[in-house]
Amino acid sequence: MNPLLAQFIPEARDLLEQAGNGMLALERDAGSQSVINDVFRAVHTLKGSSGLFDVGPLTRLVHAAEDLLGEVRTGEIPLNSDIVDRLLDSLDLVGRWIDALETREALPSDAEATMTERVKVLRSWLAEPSTAGLDRATAPMTSVVTEVPDWLDRFPEADRMTAFKALSRPRLLAWSFEPDEDCFFRGDDPVAMLRHAPGILTLRAGPRAPFPTFDSMDPLSCLLRFEVLSDTTRAELDEHMRYVIERVDIREIASADLASPVGKAAGGPVFGDFGRLARQHLAGGDRTALERAVSTLLTMIAPASFQASALRWVQAHLSCHGLDRRGDLERLIAAVETGVLPPRSEHPAATSSAAEPAPSPTEGEAALHDTARTIAAEQIKVLKTPADPALAQGRLEAVATVLKNLADALGDSHMAAELPNAVTAFRQTGDLGPLQALVETLGEQRPEIPPPDRIAPSAAEPIPASSKPGAAVDEHGDVKALPRVLRVDQSKIDSIMNLVAELIVAKNGLSYLATRAEQVHGSRVVAREIKDQFAVIDRITQGLQVGVMAVRMMPVSQVFQRFPRLVRDISRKLGKKIELVIEGEDTEADKNVLESLADPLIHMVRNSLDHGIETPDERKAAGKPEQGVLKIVARQENDFVVIEVSDDGKGIDPLRVKAKALKLGLISPERAEQMNDGEAINLVFDAGLSTKEEVSDLSGRGVGMDVVRSAVIKAGGEVSLRSTLGAGTLVTVRLPLTMAVTRIVTIECRGRIFGIPMDHVVETVRVKREHIHRIKAMETFVLRDTIIPIARLARALRLPEVASDAQRDEEAVMVVKVGRERVGMVVDGFRERLEVIVKPLEGVLEGLPGFSGTALLGDGQVLLVLDLQEML
Amino acid sequence: MPIRTEDSLIALDGHCTIEEAEALFEILRGIEEPVFDLAATNTLHTAIVQLIMASSGVVRNIPDDPVLAACFHNRRAA
Question: Which candidate from B21, B67, B73 shows the least CB-CB separation from A220?
Fold first, then answer.
């Protein structure tokens, strides 16, 4: 395959997944700008990279999706479930096309036709007249922030004054741009982007943090930050910066915000006199007199003083606007008089009425804010401490309540509104980011007034990022360094794994060699030296094995991430209201284990949705909340990964299960009598049992749970089910963390060696002949007050009888666990324990019952590993 | 080659793209106080601009462009 295409395929899948997850998140919270930006960017990147290949229909379909998303992003088209459905459908289709590309390096033949149809549907929304009633030219991509950025004063007075004079309208945009560190690799050239930005008045450029020493610099990593004043509209700027919009913080400010005097305030009676005089002239409308007063005073005082700066602004104002905008003039005159610029009394917001003048916080309020922030910061600390999963949920709720109360107390509506989303984000992904961002901006709803005596630093100094809420965009962006990830073909890892396996076997050969050296050649010293070497190689091999295993470990989120979509689709189809709660996504397991888990889990989730959780009406009638909860929890227990799928639905009726099993002849009437409820419920794992009367297209064909069980058992795990009628069902799956290396016990039977997986072995005992009793046709013995049935391995394997059998007065019995029952297996003797790689039977041996596979022993013998489940 | 060096003088010609960044970086590591001459350039990639900003050098003949003027604002050769 063309290497470029080979790279494109996994990348495309990642992007599709990102977009898909984003869409689901958007459906819950349509207002989240950062999510919509992510989705848009993923789809945009996909469109761009697909253009490199001969996949026209794919590119055009993705393009249509991008356009639709673009409109959603600008708020032109409100997002609804229909649009999400269509977009997800289209992404699914693209996913199938990618699969086709991988296998055949070409799109399916019907791609063109399917694409045309889909594109028509997607474009139909675009064609609809704007329902939001917004004029496209004025629709901002992000909410309009009118707060003055704290870096505005750092522009030299002369630059601000030039901008002030050049302005064609009363308002302007003050925006900062911090290109992504990796932006060069994507072909971005921020300087070129700025050069073509609309209406630039003036700008500042500098490093975000001081440059590292020159020698240690990475010339291909972008460390710059730009601060720009532009005389343009929000829409135009949004359009220009649309592909990096999340790296941009745009504020719409008034031209009067530029007129901020800088310098050290001077003192003296002359300023008070000027104030009185200037106000007189202003009241009298005498512009010439005012101008004269200003220039006179300017010649008298130090040009670097605050008052001189304010006077120059008065001059600039007079020359541009004359005596208009009197409020601004009065403010500047007061600045000359007092040495402090009073806050702007009115904030003539052109676009919104939200820009009410903010009262400056009183001291009491400030103290309240400080306390609140401390409390909030503590909450984050609490969440950062690792917790028992059983406690985590309660703790999160407690924290959420505290934060909500804090937000209410401070009147922080932004936090109150965003909090539930941030909490959900944390619960589902463990990502503290959104919560932390909220806490950090707690109570910051008002513009801050910069201290008047701040002196503008020179442009050579680094430009630190603004700490205002508007900059929080950065925190959702990808400021943090990308993890260094290597994409490796799984077959390469598998071949390393096989080599490690061979090494383990070869290593076992050394201990045979040591024994031979001692027994055959009589050299104890050599034997000991070989053993020493063996110990060293053993240690390295183990390290190697652990290392390779770690590479193959993946978080279960790989499997879980498809569930939000699945649950959404199914619950919509069934008309049920379901909340999906996922916990422990970070739990890791071997890739093969996870793959073997994927299908059973889907069955389990579907079962819960279809049979478990009731319709809203049924739930209301049963006195439950309308919305059902489906919970998927993963955790690690020793060498096992445990996955629990639980719902708060109607549970399973043991009597019905029993009746059905009886009817189908799965159990005998006597067995039904003896069964307790727990056992009866677990009958659902038997083939052919489904209690739901009608067959739905989701589940209920009576194949669900037995498929689950056989898949889990095949992967070396076990599955069990608990259910309370009317209260819900819990299915627990336990799987080994890794399937690669199996610990086995070897046993001898009629001169042959067999292996038994250690997981099945309960204990080994020697039982006297007279203690073995016959109950009907079955041999049994009593082990610590429990009757254990006996099976003879030789008989089960149909190995020839040997004369010595009859003479033994003691039997070697290995007690093994098969399913939930214990069986004593009579063998001829116990041998050593080994770690081996069990290879499945292949070729002519494939499908041979009774054996799960073969393993190679250190002396070159092939060991057959028994499959007890099938044999006994 | 759009980069010409003569002692500590570094003249950039024509379009300086990202491809030149590593070469310029290597050159600059060997020069104490470089002097950049931009008389013959028309465009500089951000990576080149950033290297000049991070170096200890001064710049002469800055093109008439507000973005470059801002970037090299404190680097203007006397």
Answer: B21
* Domain A3-138, CATH: 1.20.120.160
Q: Using an 8 Å Cβ cutoff, are A612 and A730 in contact?
A: no
Does residue B46 have a pLDDT over 90?
A: yes
The ranges assigned to domains in chain B are 3-71
Check CB contact under 8 Å for A219 and B22: yes
Q: Is the CATH code 3.30.565.10 the one for domain A556-736?
A: yes
A680: tokens are: 């009866």
Residue A474 has pLDDT above 70, yes or no: no
Q: Rounded to whole angstroms, how far apart are CA atoms A504 and A544?
A: 10
- % chain A with pLDDT above 70: 85
Q: Does B29 touch chain A (CB under 8 A)?
A: yes
pLDDT, one tens digit per residue, over A554-574 is 888 888 888 888 888 888 888
Smallest Cβ distance to A204: which of B25, B55, B70? B70
Q: Distances from the Cα of A537 to the Cαs of A73, A510, A544, A759, in angstroms?
A: 59, 10, 10, 26
Adjacency order of strands within the sheet including B3-6? B3-6, B9-16, B35-44, B58-60
- Per the DSSP assignment, residues forming a β-bridge with A635 are A642
> How does DSSP classify residue A797?
T
Nearest Cα residue in chain B from A216? B29
Q: Do B53 and A206 touch (CB under 8 A)?
A: yes
pLDDT band, very low/low/confident/very high, at A227 (cuts 50, 70, 90) = very high
User: By CA distance, what is B68's nearest residue in A?
Assistant: A191
- Give the integer Cα–Cα distance in Å for A850 and A866: 6
Class of the CATH domain delimited by B3-71: alpha beta
Interchain CB distance below 8 Å, B55 and A214: yes
User: Span A265-271, mean pLDDT?
Assistant: 81
Who wins on pLDDT, A765 or A671? A765
Residue of A nearest to B23 (CA): A219
Report for A81-85, A377-381, A476-480, A761-765: range of highest mean pLDDT: A761-765
pLDDT value at residue A142: 46
A651: left (phi over 0), alpha (psi -120 to 50) or beta: left
Say what the pLDDT of residue A693 is.
44
Do A205 and B70 make contact, defined as CB atoms within 8 angstroms? yes
Are residues A184 and B47, on separate chains, in Cβ contact within 8 Å? Answer: yes
Contact of B16 with chain A, judged by CB distance below 8 Å, is answered with: no
Residue A225 has pLDDT above 90, yes or no: yes
How far, in Å, are A61, A318, A358 from residue A260 at the CA level? 51, 15, 18
Q: What was the pLDDT predicted at A478? A: 41
Using the Cβ of A751 and the Cβ atoms of chain B, whether some distance falls under 8 Å is answered with no
B42 and A CB contact within 8 Å: no
Give the residue on A whose Cα is nearest the Cα of B26.
A215
Residue A131 to residue A123: CA distance in whole angstroms: 15
- CATH number for A152-259+450-475 (one of 2.40.160, 3.10.150, 2.30.320, 3.30.70): it is 3.30.70
Which residues, 6+ apart, have CB-to-CB distance to A585 below 8 Å? Answer: A428, A429, A430, A555, A556, A557, A560, A634
The phi-psi region of residue A662 (left if phi > 0; otherwise alpha if psi is between -120 and 50; otherwise beta) is alpha
- Is A460 touching B (CB cutoff 8 A)? yes
- Does pLDDT of A448 surpass 90? no
Superfamily of domain A742-871: CheA-289, Domain 4 (2.40.50.180)
Whether A473 has a pLDDT exceeding 60, the answer reads no
**So what's the pLDDT on residue A145?**
63
Is B43 within 8 Å of chain A by CB? yes
Question: What ipTM does the predicted assembly reach?
Answer: 0.94
